[in-house]
Amino acid sequence: MNELRTIRAKSGTNQEGTSAHNRRVIIEAIRLNGPLSRADLARATRLTKQTVSNLIENLEADGLVASEDVVRRGRGQPSTPYRLVAEGAFALGVQIDRELTRVVAVDFLGREAARAVANLPPGDPVEGSRVILRLVEKVRADLVARIPVSAHRLTGLGIAMPGPFGLEPAGDDPWMMGKWQAFPLLETLAAGTGLDVSLQNDATACATAERMNGAADGLDHVVCLYLGYGIGAGLILGGELYTGSNRNAGEIGMVLFSRGGAVLPLEHRASLASLFQRLGLDTATTDAYETVERLTREGDPRILDWLEGAATDLRQAVHMVETIFDPQTVLLTGSAPQPLAERLFAAVFPLLPSNAERPGRTIARFQLGTMDPWAVALGAAADPIRRAFDPVFSAILKEAT
Amino acid sequence: MNELRTIRAKSGTNQEGTSAHNRRVIIEAIRLNGPLSRADLARATRLTKQTVSNLIENLEADGLVASEDVVRRGRGQPSTPYRLVAEGAFALGVQIDRELTRVVAVDFLGREAARAVANLPPGDPVEGSRVILRLVEKVRADLVARIPVSAHRLTGLGIAMPGPFGLEPAGDDPWMMGKWQAFPLLETLAAGTGLDVSLQNDATACATAERMNGAADGLDHVVCLYLGYGIGAGLILGGELYTGSNRNAGEIGMVLFSRGGAVLPLEHRASLASLFQRLGLDTATTDAYETVERLTREGDPRILDWLEGAATDLRQAVHMVETIFDPQTVLLTGSAPQPLAERLFAAVFPLLPSNAERPGRTIARFQLGTMDPWAVALGAAADPIRRAFDPVFSAILKEAT
DNA sequence: CTTATTAAGTCAAATGTCTTGACTTAACTG
DNA sequence: CAGTTAAGTCAAGACATTTGACTTAATAAG
Q: HTH marR-type domain spans which residues (chains A, B) (predicted)?
């Protein structure tokens, strides 16, 4: 008779949530600090020795941790450190870009275990998703061939592609991603692989990669600028990845910057697309990446000119994210050729004065992260791992029915 | 012999953490939905009926919830809704501004229970903190006189003042807040009141106020622009207040905007300070607030001119925070006279196209929040309440030794 | 009017996880 | 070689949630 009311609240938790969290905390502690003994873990997590012992036993049985050689450290019984077992879990990651797709498998430590790359038919997600599925199966077969135990240890499939997500297709869609946005990608890949599928934008995936093995590891507040065809920011806020209410947080490429009287999106000058355009490169027909690398080494004046404009905007972007997020550090990542990235990074200095310039700073305000073109795929693959094993709030809550 | 190593990890949890979280979840569910029966609560929190019964009994004994009249809703045993008891908890809040301080007491629901205001000697935190302490004692006495039970139910004292915090004192310090920043304020007020003291900037406090009773209630992703002497943003991200690594997140007044060739901080045009300057008002000697209100009603051309500039910048600021945070909504709050605020709010429209313009939106992109000058003090006071009773991640973890 | 159905809420035993304190083991120190 | 320190285990206990049967109290249907 009464209409069913929607009741809003976070969900509660129970003993299961408690122990799940504690398992995750132990894994995190070992990941951050390297091998730790049970006593070390008890101190790090504030759990009792006994609880840690139980959990370690549990994790060892699951093949996620293993003991190392006994260590003597002065008086008292020697300790037995435990390390994470790389083969304890795996995940797959897919990067979808305009013209190509990269698929990787990573292990529990986020290290690459297999990879494959293929071209994508631009603007054709139907055929494109078939290509991806074939590639995923190839990588999966590769992985299983190499490490036989892995089959049931696959925690999921992470996808990374340029955002923003969920918008009305725009009239101008220079990157042909509009059709991909409209395509039921997650459903298709979930059905085709039988895996749990997650989606994030490329900047967020790159931040995940930096968090897994890079400069962001162990930090709780990091803004990771991602310079690709466009420019975006992957956000680690309060120790967790932040993606906003619709997975579109950090799309700073669309923030408006004024230059010489005109108001333009940041990515108009600070993006590889703007560089390719300046150079008259068609990414579909030329190997733009190598061309840019060569021209950079040659000191091409168009590159220098672009660098100046991009660095100016980037300097302001760093100031903006420092001011807005109050992060511990800002990273420059992306898929630019290494020489270009290094020049750009250097050209951003000196940084603008900002709130980040505080007495007693120990971490650099602005650092150069990875420019590995595979970082996005690796980050995409690391996402299911982190979902399954990181101590996050949502892992404690009871699941939806 | 070995140096004590610092081991990094989140801390673990135990049954205590579990039940503490569940208590908080129940409180949140009632706060968001209004009175709920035990069965409703079980559905909302995914806890079992029995668990909810235990917790409700517990909360009732603590005087935090109380039963209402039995409700018949069709077949089955009638249900007994529980509501939050306003007198169940109290907290004090202090707003410190350049020339004055406001102190309020709020109840469990965030409603004002007592208030007081006094002038502050500009740039003199030693004498100023004495003024504050006297005012706090006055409000506390007021509160206790009105509601005798309250003494031990005081959860803490929240302070709000303009940021940024922890920086080297700048050469130009037009607002005389530099000396306050250097002063050991938390320690002084903690010692003087015997209460737990917390600190946030004024924009964050205003966001807390909006979250407690205003437009942000029940939303998980909100950016709350605060237009005061300067301009800042209070951030609610992922259901929790976000303050960055050094409590300086959201200080968007310092973000650089280009206008007519010059690069200037946002607050150069979009702040009350800029308006006062334009009008030649000295806030120390005149009642700037009333003057502005009168001039606004009169349609003073200087006001109109300022409005145009401020609205232009604000429009861009809204676009910026929408793009960067992907929030559910953006609120305009502050301490401007209501007529001015309404005009400014209206002048921001039409909003710039952004990622927030998605199909199927139900919440307005940009809303006018409170301009109550007491909102900051109320938010400061609500902070200890929310710390003590909101279901946040940190509440589950074991405490530091 | 009587019976069936539905839903709220309680009871008591069971389960799962962490905690406690005593104990064992194994090293270094003097 | 005895004393001290620290890692790690053992077993009983404490605590919070879960389970399933049961009670209570209303409406709906015949």
A: 26-75
